[in-house]
Amino acid sequence: DLLDRIQGKPTFNESDVANIIQMALSGIIYLHEQKLSHSDLKPENVLFFEESSNTIKLSDYGLYQIMKPETLLSSSIGTPDFSPPELLVNKPPGMESDIWNIGVLAYFLLTGQLPFKGSLYQRYQSIITGQVEFGDEFEKYSTDAKDFIKKCLTLDLKERIKDSEALDHPWFANPGSNSIQRDSVISFLQKRMQTRGNPE
Prior knowledge:
This protein is mainly alpha-helical. It has nine helices and four strands; from the N terminus they run ααββββααααααα. The protein has helices at 2-8, 14-33, 85-88, 96-111, 120-129, 143-152, 163-167, 170-173, 182-195; strands at residues 36-37, 46-48, 56-58, 65-66. It has a two-stranded antiparallel sheet with strand order 1-4. Strands 2-3 form a two-stranded antiparallel sheet. Helix 1 packs antiparallel against helix 9 and helix 4 (96-111) packs antiparallel against helix 6 (143-152). The protein is globular and about 45 Å long.
């Protein structure tokens, strides 16, 4: 998983994150082409095919939705903090919701933080209003990385970047090489592992 992968590499930089996000996007696009929505993309659901491989698999399809053409999902599902705004205000999420998850994942992998800060209530309010925080931790990363995340975390579904457009974003062709906030990412993932409920 991501925790083992990052702990096992002495360095992890923006280019590595861009590669992971690009592969995750490719998986999401494949799902969308099959009229499926993952609906719960988060760090725990990104797995590496083997220890030495750069190939990932997306896991945990317990919440996936079968989608009919030109229709929207109708159930409130997902994981707090990674949930798109349309879900939190009880509007039916669509395939665009997976793109929101991609944006949150990219933000997290670079900084070890989530884009929405404060108490649970404050975070949800920020998600609902689309108030993304790009603090000092983002200064060393490329402008393309920030632009990609902003386009994924766009409140208006019609304005949010489409999956195929996201895959063609300039960030993937020319990512920066600065190291990520590795310790913060590892600490966050470890806490999530410790607080996960009993599977039963």
